[in-house]
Amino acid sequence: MSNDFYCDEALSGRTPVQVVKETDEVLAFHHTRPYWPVHIVVVPKAHIPSLTDLGGHPVEAVYRLLDVVREVAAEVEARHGACRVATNLGGYQDSKHLHFHVGHGAALR
Questions:
Q1: Bridge partner residues of 43 (DSSP)
Q2: Is 101 among the catalytic positions?
Q3: Could you tell me how far CA 30 lies from the centroid of its own chain?
Q4: Pairing of strands 100-104, 84-86
Q5: Backbone angles phi, psi at 76, to 5 degrees
């Protein structure tokens, strides 16, 4: 099995997700195992390994991804008064598919 939850599970439909926002190129959904009370993941539908390894995709794909991250974060901030946005690289990146976490609240675990 690969180390890409997003391609293998979420984007394939194998693991159902609760969609927050979707475009032709980007999917935002509630995390399947949330760390915060509000925890949304935003991923490109194309396999882009990480922020530092675009896997041959144009940087414009990241711009379109960040536009959705910005919209989702603005909604969380408007609703809750604060928001965090994070991504991980290298050994910190569990799933080798570029993704951003958008969240609010104290850690659940």
A1: 27
A2: no
A3: 9
A4: antiparallel
A5: -65, -45
CA distances from 65 to 14, 81, 93 (A): 22, 23, 17
SS3 call for 91: helix
**Distance between CA atoms of 66 and 28, rounded to whole angstroms?**
11
Distance CA 75, CA 92 (A): 27
- 40 forms bridges with which residues in the sheet? 30, 102
Token pair of 91 as six digits: 């050994």
Q: What tens digit of pLDDT does each residue of 12-29 get?
A: 999 999 999 999 999 999
pLDDT score recorded for residue 22: 98
The active-site residue out of 31, 39, 97, 99 is: 99
pLDDT in tens, 49-104: 999 999 999 999 999 999 999 999 999 999 999 999 999 999 999 999 999 999 99
Q: Who contacts 53 (Cβ-Cβ below 8 Å, separation ≥6)? A: none
Q: Strands 84-86 and 38-44, how do they pair?
A: unpaired
